[in-house]
Write a structure and sequence with these properties.
Shape: globular
Largest sheet: 5 strands, mixed
Structural class: alpha+beta
Strand order of the largest sheet: 1-2-3-7-9
Bound molecules: zinc ion
Strand content: 15-25%
Number of domains: 2
Oligomer: single chain
Helix content: 25-40%
């Protein structure tokens, strides 16, 4: 599963819950990346015969790099950097230009990932082939001077076919997966949290699709529908998401009393249940289980 980056959850929550909120530049940047990764995963799914890891941040000696999507087969390890660029770019080496605008070439960051992966694999002493690629997932993307390891949308199918012809994973690959998860160290993008006052933030459960206030009602029914967009979720699920939002807004672990205040006393029993099921508890403070 690709987890939505926390900065996106935070800003989307502020957008719903404050009278006025303008998304940051970081938000758009992160959203591009997230959308591209989602698109790659949805258009090119993979069976459970193989292992997939998303947004894994690895550190090995001086190398610190992120792999957007890693696929492990019985024969190879694929490390993909995924980009969501649109349209034609003019390649000037360190800079890529499009319609008068220029951006830093993504190849530098990609090379860091590739070098990091190779060093790590060497250290692990694996016999798997290492395949690193930078995938441009938007069909409209092109570049006048192509560089090694660039994959256009049209060519993704060829890579996926290769993957699907490889041996399925076994015990060794499961151990590799565990190792990667162990050494995963998230790179925090959000050094700058948006500044806001919790007093101005609308509490309670708001629909994450349309922003409408959700009234869980008094009945015993399991499910509640948004009265505007008709999104249907279990009461537990509505509460879980609202509490996760609350934790991200206050940026720390949360306690039962404030959780009840956020959701409403009428649902205190469900709040307790959700906290116990979906959060890790330390000394009465709850932190969302990711
Ligand atoms: Zn809704």
């Amino acid at each position: 599963m690709i987890r939505k980056p926390e900065i996106m959850l935070l800003e989307e929550s502020l957008h719903r819950r404050l009278g006025k909120y303008a998304f940051s530049e970081d938000y758009h940047y992160v959203q591009y990346g997230y959308d591209g990764e989602q698109m790659f995963k949805e258009k090119f799914p993979l069976s459970t015969s193989y292992i997939q890891l998303f947004n894994i941040c690895l550190k090995h000696h001086q190398h610190h790099f992120e792999v957007d999507r890693m696929i492990i087969t019985g024969e190879s390890i694929y490390a993909f950097d995924v980009k969501s660029y649109h349209r034609t770019f003019h390649n000037e080496g360190g800079v890529w230009r499009k319609e008068g605008k220029s951006i830093k070439s993504p190849m530098g960051q990609y090379e860091q990932m590739k070098e990091g992966m190779q060093a790590l694999m060497h250290y692990m002493g694996t016999h798997h082939n290492i395949v690193c690629k930078i995938i441009f997932i938007q069909p409209s993307f092109s570049i006048d001077q192509r560089e090694a390891d660039i994959v256009f949308f049209k060519e993704v199918k060829d890579i996926m076919c290769c993957i699907k012809n490889e041996k399925r994973v076994g015990k060794l690959e499961m151990e590799m997966k565990q190792y990667f998860e162990q050494i995963h160290k998230p790179i925090s993008l959000y050094k700058q949290r948006p500044i806001f006052n919790m007093k101005d933030v609308t509490p309670g459960i708001l629909c994450d699709v349309c922003g409408m206030k959700i009234d869980l009602g008094k009945g015993n029914g399991m499910y509640t529908k948004c009265s505007c967009c008709e999104t249907r979720k279990s009461k537990e699920e509505w509460i879980r998401f609202a509490l996760q939002e609350y934790q991200i807004l206050v940026n720390r672990s949360i306690n039962y009393t404030e959780s009840v205040r956020w959701i409403g006393r009428a649902h205190r029993n469900l709040v307790k249940k959700v906290l116990e099921k979906h959060f890790n508890c330390t000394n009465g403070m709850y932190l969302f289980k990711n």
